[in-house]
Amino acid sequence: MVRVSVDDSGPGACAKPADAVALPRYAGAPASTFCRRRGFLARAGQVVAEPSGDGSVLLNVGLGAAGSATPATFRAAAAAAVRAAGPARTLRLDLALADGPVPPAERARAVTEGALLALYRYDTHRSRKPARTLDELIVAVPQPEAAAAVREAQAVSDGTCLARDLVNAPPGELTPTLFADRARQMAEEYGFSCTVHEGAALAELGLAGLTAVGRGSREAAKYVEIDYAPEGAPAVPVVSLVGKGVTFDSGGLSLKQAREMHTMKSDMGGAAAVVGALASLARLALPVRVRSHLPLTENMPDGAALRTGDVVRHLDGTTTEIVNTDNEGRLVLADVLVHAGRARPDLLIDVATLTSAAAHALGTRTGALFTNDEQLAETVLASADRTGEPLCRLPLAEDERRHLHSATADRANCSYRYGDTTQAALFLQDFVPTGLPWAHLDIAAPAHNDEPSYREVPHGGTGFGVRTLVETLRRVSGGE
Ligand code: MN
Ligand code: MN
């Protein structure tokens, strides 16, 4: 674990020595001969390492044009610096000292996040661990008040890395039971109240979709509820978070092809994002009441598995015909939305790796947002934008509802060839109480990065959603 310290001596003052120092460079500013000879133009993300007289290494980190810098520029610059730090044991990041259009505390936050998120490694299962040299990260802040932003960024980054660990864990080591154990551990560590529903008690709750999907696996389904109600938090709003936790999705009897099944340990990315957000929330001591709901199951083709043609009767009395057992996510979430809605929260947000079709529309780095509430749309989109998790709002296009038609039940969990992301969202909307502001984040694509790492995003589990959730909660709790 890297230690993070803050250097608030400010620009130009006597600063903490370090093995490597990352210096901010805007394009067009004068550069050393050493840099110029190596073609350094201070393009965003460009890094040139330069030896300094005292034996340390100066990392010249490009920020691009001063006028166009954003928090994303600083996150990417810090990530690039961390990757270029080589064998340094201590790395000082002076990047937030660069003046410009981004306010000082925002720069400090972005630099800390970019560095910590880029430092993430998942090497639990490697017998030869790559050498880890960096012990200490020193974040230089332009003014002492910005130190708080560094601590906040640490809390959010740690939550994101927790979600990444959960997504990266092999599915055999993160069954519903083991996921529930991890969630309970997190809850105990931070003093949340946590209930794990299982066996007969779970059956009694009547979460029919979860139970039906869970039947196909030898691993028992679990349903975890974690409540965060910090002392002094106002009575309203109460926010309910729902996270899809399919710890492995084989597709069930509608079995996936090998190539698509390969990364299906990540089908619990929504539940992971909720757990990561809760951990961050506690560290930030945000004064907001949160109830979280995690349906955990595998989707497997056991002899007891859901058949196509089966009909599930949900908690609200309506029925769904199973047309494709690989569309298990909407089934699992349906009853949980009813259950969460019955407790009358003021806001309901679900996060789910729901449809691969979302990637066809938006590519693999952007999540889809559906919501029935304009104000919530604005809050969630602004949160995603500020924290660097790209989200795009898609419409709850009523015309698409015709594809949910079933000849034998109230609806089908069918996916038509086109528009599955929208149809899945419409399916979920059926289970949300009328009038309750609800947002649905489909993060099927960005929860797992199949490509090499880029900027602050690693290969594998990305922790997508944690930052947006935390920022959304901060805003609804009255933060500006
Ligand atoms: Mn599926
Ligand atoms: Mn799934």
Secondary-structure map with pairings?
Blueprint: E1 3-7, E2 20-25, H1 33-37, E3 47-51, E4 57-62, H2 71-83, E5 90-93, H3 104-119, E6 136-140, H4 147-168, H5 176-190, E7 193-197, H6 199-205, H7 208-214, E8 222-228, E9 238-243, E10 245-249, H8 258-261, H9 269-284, E11 289-299, E12 311-313, E13 319-321, H10 328-342, E14 347-352, H11 357-362, E15 367-371, H12 374-387, E16 391-393, E17 411-412, H13 420-429, E18 438-442, E19 448-449, E20 460-461, H14 466-476
Parallel strand pairs: 1-6, 2-4, 2-5, 5-6, 9-11, 9-14, 10-11, 13-17, 14-18, 15-16
Antiparallel strand pairs: 3-4, 7-8, 8-11, 12-13, 15-18, 19-20
Helix pairs in contact: 2-3, 3-4, 4-9, 5-9, 7-10, 9-14, 10-13, 12-14
Count of individual domains: 2
Gyration radius, to the nearest Å? 23 Å
- The averaged pLDDT comes out at 96
CATH third-level topology of the largest domain: Aminopeptidase
- Got a strand count? 20
For CATH, the homologous superfamily of the largest domain is named as Zn peptidases
CATH C-level of the largest domain: Alpha Beta
Biggest sheet statistics: 9 strands, mixed
Shape-level CATH architecture of the largest domain: 3-Layer(aba) Sandwich
State the helical fraction: 25-40%
Estimated structural class: alpha/beta
